[in-house]
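User: I'm putting together notes for a lab meeting next week and I want to include a structural view of one of the chains we've been expressing. I don't have a solved structure, so I'd like a prediction I can at least talk through. The sequence is below, exactly as it appears in our construct file.
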Amino acid sequence: MIKQKQVKLAMLAVLGLAFNAVAQIKIAVVGKTKNDTFYEQSFHGCQAFAKQHKNLTCIYEGADDYQDVRTQVLIVKELVEQEIDGLLISTTDSTYLVEGALKEAKEKGIPVITFDSDLLTQHHAYRLAYVGTNNFDFGKALAEVAKKYKTEPLQAVCIQSGHQTTPNLNERIRGVRHALFGNDQQRLSATHGWREYERCPLYTMGRREDALSQLLNIIKQPKPPIFLAVAGFAQFNSDYIEALTPFKEQIANGTLTIVSADTENVQLQALAKGLSTENIGQNPFAMGKLGASLLFDVITKAKAPSQSQYFLDYHYCHQANATTCTTNH
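Assistant: Thanks for the context. Below is the predicted structure for the 329-residue chain, given as structure tokens.
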């Protein structure tokens, strides 16, 4: 009886060791917000890569409701103290993130890859590489779409963004201004036949209710400017379709133009109904998959990324191709 018990305990010990071997590597995927299908897709990309490696687990985290720089730092700090093996993160505030969490991650030897939103150039020592869209070019692409809908000799445009310190969104604004005004500096008045609407840029902090409210306030003006959103917050709002339905005819006849970043399912549903003019989408799933792959190589092979930046492509969606222009995971 005692011998059987000893054998049983030995078997359990072996199984325990096997389990630990399988689940030993943990990569955390941290978006700017957690309740966002964009970052959920990046997490799914990490999970898709993890299916090929039984010893890899992906963890998903982020601020619950909006782009809260303090919450993001607290979450990363906690993950670092839990001794994750790698971090894949979209930056909300570069300085705050580095000072509050990434310096500690570096001290502990935890490799960091940024995705979607990179650290500022002066902070690149705290990440190994960036995976995502070339955000300056993405801003230029959004502006080129807006140019097609210019109806005035001096056309007004209203830029909507998220948090004022977010690196990728600020890069997109620079790209928009470069393409429209020939200058990517601070808010510009009138040049090259374009002007920034007097109440813009608008900053939403990633709050969807605020984003939709800002959009509605602008498009209800007698002569609304072209509304150009460098992030899709207003369209992520579940009330967007109902709120924009009264403006469908204006969008159709070109007296109202809404150009937005991102092509999540909820946005494509609105686009198919003619409640957005055009959308340009990114590849968050690929960001998560490639980012996880780069981290896995660092963790298991001590193989550093061969590039500092891995730029992924983007795609164009309009009403006619809204159901076929991309695949969301």
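A couple of points you could mention at the meeting. DSSP finds twelve helices and 14 strands in the chain. Confidence is low (pLDDT under 50) at residues 1-21.

User: Perfect, that's what I needed.
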